[in-house]
Every structure is written in C-alpha cells, then in structure tokens.
Amino acid sequence: MKVAIFDYGAGNIFSLKNSLEKNGAQVDVITGLNKSKEYSGLLLPGVGNFDPAIRSIRDYSSTDFKDYVGESMPVLGICLGMEMFFEKSEEGKEQGLNVIDGEVILLPNTMKVPHMGWNNLEIERQNNFLEGVDEWFMGLFCTLIHDKDKRNRIDCSKCRLWIKVPAVIQQKNFIGTQFHPEKSGKIGSLMLSNFLSECKK
Question: Kindly report the CA angle at 83 between 93 and 115, in degrees rounded to 5?
Fold first, then answer.
C-alpha cells in the first residue's frame, strides 16, 4: 500500500512519514497532484501557512484537488491540512479547497493562540479513524481554530478548553484533526493505522 504526503515546502514532515512507515505503509513525499492512481491515500500535513500551502497545491498540480482525490480516496488533513478543507480561513486570504462547507475562524483573543500542549478529546461520535481510541485520549495540539458553521459536517470529537472546538471531523472520505497524531504517542499511531486501514479498502 502506498500513500502520499503533500509537502508545502514549509516544514519537516519526517515524523509523519516515519510514523506511517512504522505502520507498514510505503510513503512518497510529493509536491504536486499529478498521479493519483499510484496512491491509496493522501495526507495534508500540519506544517506551514494557509496561503502558501493553498497556492502550492493549486499552482504546482496538473490536476484539480477534487478531481485528484475523487469520492473514494481517503484524505487526512492534520492541523493546517484540516483547515484547508474548508471554504476559507481567517488565517489567510486565499480560497480553501472547499471540500467541507464552512469558514475557519480564529479563537477569541482572550485565549492563547497558537495553543501548544496536550488536551483531552471528548469523543462524541465514533468512526473508523477513532476505533480503539480511549474517550479521553490526550492529543498534542499546536494550534486551535474554530469553524463558523456546521453545514454537512460531522464532528467526531471535540477539545474542551474555555470553549469547545472541533478536534476530529469527517465528511465522506475527508478526515481532519486539529492535533498531530504523529506526535501523540501510541494512540496517535493507532489513529494513523486506522487511516491506513481505510486506505486499504
């Protein structure tokens, strides 16, 4: 099984690649969407800034993102990758990938942003990605964002700080996490293994 990590050119993605390989995947790092038939899944990592990352996907790919992944290829967006799923974000001016309805908004300025640290997840709705995950698993969050509305989106878990924010979301073949599973210990590794199981299907 082969999956691809999209490299926006803005950070080290070694830990994600290493974690996927430990779970038995063959991993390519790509800089353009050109050969979707080669891969069983795609990961958008949580490194970089919104506008440059969106432009990187848009300007250096011969295939449109929605056409590339279709309706069956599992896509995991981590942190920034999850943010790009939406229509737009207050963290940038570019249009998002628009595969999930809604707008990403910044947390209130009364909270520390970005948030760096461990937080409990409150699982509200189970899915295959969360199979075997304890209800109060602690994930490593590097930033926290909120979304403006919930049109056609499924919240699988929330993170409780001063307010509740979505921590794991899913819509069809798109899964997003605000935390970094590749840096969240054994349970984070289990989530990546669950994602790879979806890719095998």
Answer: 100
Q: Active site includes 156? A: no
**Which of residues 46 and 193 earns the better pLDDT score?**
193
- Any catalytic annotation for residue 79? yes
Residue of 142, 180, 198, 199 marked active site: 180
**Parent domain of 188:** 2-200
180 is catalytic: yes
Q: Tell me the CATH number at 113.
A: 3.40.50.880
Catalytic residue among 83, 159, 182, 199: 182
Say how far apart CA 130 and CA 109 lie, in whole Å: 31
Residue 129: how many CA atoms within 13 Å on its side-chain side? 26
Is pLDDT at 38 greater than 60 in this prediction?
A: yes
Which one of 79, 156, 159, 199 is the catalytic residue?
A: 79
Residue 9 has a pLDDT of 80
